[in-house]
Amino acid sequence: MSLARRSLMEVAAARFGWRRAYADTTDVDGLLIEQTETAYTEATDHAQLATAKNADVLAVQPGVLDVRGRILADVLYLEGVLTGARNRGLPPELIERLEDAVDHGHEMTVLLADTVRTTAALHAAS
Question: 41 by DSSP, 3-state: which?
Answer without folding.
Answer: helix
